[in-house]
Amino acid sequence: MIKINQLINVSAVIAFTFVIATPAAAKLNKMHKAVNSYAEKTAGNAAQDGNKRMSKSDRAKSLVVLHQEDFTPSNEALAANAFANNESVPENFSKSYKDLYAAYEHLDSYYFPLQPYYKYPILYALGEQQLIYPWARFLKEAKKILAFPVGTNLGDITIGLVGYDDGVTELVSADGQKLAMHADELFRYPMAARFFADPNCNESVWNLAMLLAYNNGRFRAVKAYTTAQNFGVADAKRGWMFPYSDGGECNEREALMKLMAREVVDIDLIAKCVLQLYQGMENEKDSTKKALYLIAGNELYKQVLMAHTDFSANTSKLNKQLMYYTRYNDTPEYSEIVDAAIVKPEPPTMALKPGALDKQLNAQVLRIIRQQYPDIIRVVVINDAWKVHTNGIVPTDRAVMAWAVYRNKKGKLEAHDYSFCQDYQGGGRYGALRYKGVGMTTVYVKQ
């Protein structure tokens, strides 16, 4: 069978829309316009040649209609892939392995350069045993990212390369060139392939939601790639090349998924998945999954459901989704859930050594700190002498630091540092001791 991207040109696409049912034709025509617009934008500066822009538009359209085609697996695929002729339907899909993998043979090589698909069983997550692998790999990466605090000096979560010499020996081109990809392609690539082959199923909509979450600001704030580019030489020392020709294919692929979901994926399915994500978040005990489901639910509602072509006609039956989104989008509850996934570094353990002023001030400091924090067990004044603060020449106050000891939520003894001071009264006199502020250090108390 001739590949679909060789069959479809602009006139053929227009003709195609008139031979299917009228509502579907209208949707597909609108989808093609959206794809044309998107392809023009993405071609922009990268390809000034008009023919190349048209080629990119055709390539995008081939992905849009891929799921509607009735492909037959090739003899080569049948020989190489045990599931290429398997007619069972995997859980949460609407198509059989046979139909999925037959479509994979016609994925456009601009967006999916690893071809033929059956030579790359890891990157396409082929077979029953690998069905869960993209999700498992994504969850592992999400756990690292969501556990990482934003706005610290700890650096970033770095996403490196996977390549031929890293155990992914399938990453080699037809002419023997060793290849490499960013490590997150181990889930981004198969999730996208599944979506274009079978968009109207739970699996694909959930995959889209996860990829939208992966590009959410919370994720972008802490993740960084070891190399910014995604084409050309990946690692000269290892002799690795990227398989992509332009470098933007991965992001463009996911943008097309979003466009397609708004136009051709059933709005009831989108709405159902939004509810599943929010309700899953409420029932989930694991803090990482809870935060992930919440972010994914918000992104799927905002970027797909609200922008769906059938949204206005269905608003009356989408009130539950609206309630969840209103409650959890950029609200204190949202922050609390997302922050709960952060894993803070364990504080050091140390013995609290009292200073010379401890005997004199301990009782006063304990009384004052308990007015702020009633659960404080004891205090340890650190200073051997008062620290005098001035505004240049004249004293303003004299201060001491003290450890305040308490039990954390796990029942373990912790201490945090606080400052206390006496304001200068003039004539060498200082006033009553008062609370001044909180320090930056937390430690476990050595017993």
UniProtKB/TrEMBL annotation:
User: Which keywords, in A-to-Z order, does the entry hold?
Assistant: Signal
Residues annotated as signal peptide: 1-26
How is this protein named in the record? Transglycosylase SLT domain-containing protein
